[in-house]
Amino acid sequence: MAPVIITDNLGKKYGDLDAVNRVNFSVREGSLFGLLGPNGSGKTTMIKMLTGQILPSSGKGYVLDIDVTSDPVEVRRSVGIVPEQETPPSFLTVMEYLEFVGEIRKIPDLEKKILWWLEFLDFGDKRDVLCKDLSRGTRQKLMLTQAFIHEPKLALIDEPLINFDPIMQTKVKEFFVSYVHQGNTLFLSTHLLETAEEICTDIAILHKANLLFCGTIHEVLEKSGHLPEFFLSLVRSN
Ligand SMILES: Nc1ncnc2c1ncn2[C@@H]1O[C@H](COP(=O)(O)OP(=O)(O)OP(=O)(O)O)[C@@H](O)[C@H]1O
Predict the structure, then answer these.
(1) Do 160 and 217 belong together in one domain?
(2) Overall number of domains in the chain
(3) How far, in Å, from the CA of 115 to the mean position of ligand 1?
(4) What is the annotated signal peptide range for this record (predicted)?
(5) CA angle 162-163-169, nearest 5°?
(6) What pTM was estimated for this model as a whole?
(7) In which domain, by residue range, is 102 found?
(8) 43 C-alpha to center of ligand 1: Å?
(9) By CB atoms within 10 Å of each CB, which of 77, 84, 157, 178 scores lowest?
(10) Same domain for 90 and 159
């Protein structure tokens, strides 16, 4: 099975700063891939490059066989994306925003799908509320909905569980696991190491713009017993 994401010496500089330093890894189809790393290690920059939001400074990146440098628009069209701390347009209601997304993505049976998501994430009572008046958790529900409503084969999500209460975290984690069991792929960045250990099949660790580790969760657990210990000892020794 061909990887759904390949990076080949992919790098990003902001002026003189290496935010991501010539990184190589690939993501298997059907995996739940967790990108970990301390603050400022380059996770968001990596996701932005892989979702066509910024252009790399060096190397190549392929997402679903699409070159992220030459065809960023096609990348954005093909995947589900939840950018870091993104908020939906303040001047639209929940329904208006989802109808807008449906229009752009040309989603069949849109109304039915919207109703399913409103019920699944338990925010149907907010359907006519302007996005500016939503709580942070409800905004995150809306951002997750817009990422998955067109049923992409691959979704990339920056900090997916932030702002959610424990009940909603559990529900969303279960959704992620069932999403990959259906053959789709999920690429997420997170600081929640216990959660990554619980649900991820594959792990990559960035530190100071460099890739320190990429492998399966089984390799991690064999080496170290638990992901948090593995992560801390690797990062502290580099
Ligand atoms: N637009 C930008 N201009 C200049 N520097 C930037 C820009 N965006 C990010 N950086 C820098 O690039 C480095 C990597 O940032 P990035 O946001 O990718 O890290 P991160 O791992 O996602 O961090 P966090 O866990 O804190 O969200 C940091 O040093 C950051 O200050």
Answers:
(1) yes
(2) 2
(3) 36
(4) none
(5) 70
(6) 0.95
(7) 86-151
(8) 8
(9) 178
(10) no
Sheet holding 17-27, edge to edge: 17-27, 5-14, 58-63, 66-67
Q: Are residues 71 and 102 in the same domain?
A: no
User: From atom 11 of ligand 1, which residue's Cα is the shortest distance away?
Assistant: 19
The best mutation among 23, 36, 39, 41 to test binding of ligand 1, ranked by most ligand atoms within 8 Å of the C-beta, falls on 41
Residue 92 sits in the same domain as residue 74: no
Residues 156 and 231 in one domain: yes
Residues 96 and 139 in one domain: yes
At 151, the amino acid letter reads E
Q: 105 falls in which pLDDT band (50, 70, 90)?
A: very high
**26 and 132, same structural domain?**
no
Q: Are residues 97 and 190 in the same domain?
A: no
Distance 164 CA to ligand 1 centre (A): 23
The yes/no answer to whether this complex scores an ipTM above 0.90 is yes
Residue 43 Cβ inside 6 Å of ligand 1? The answer reads yes
Residues 6+ apart with CB under 8 A from 122: 141, 168
146 lines ligand 1 (CB under 6 A): no
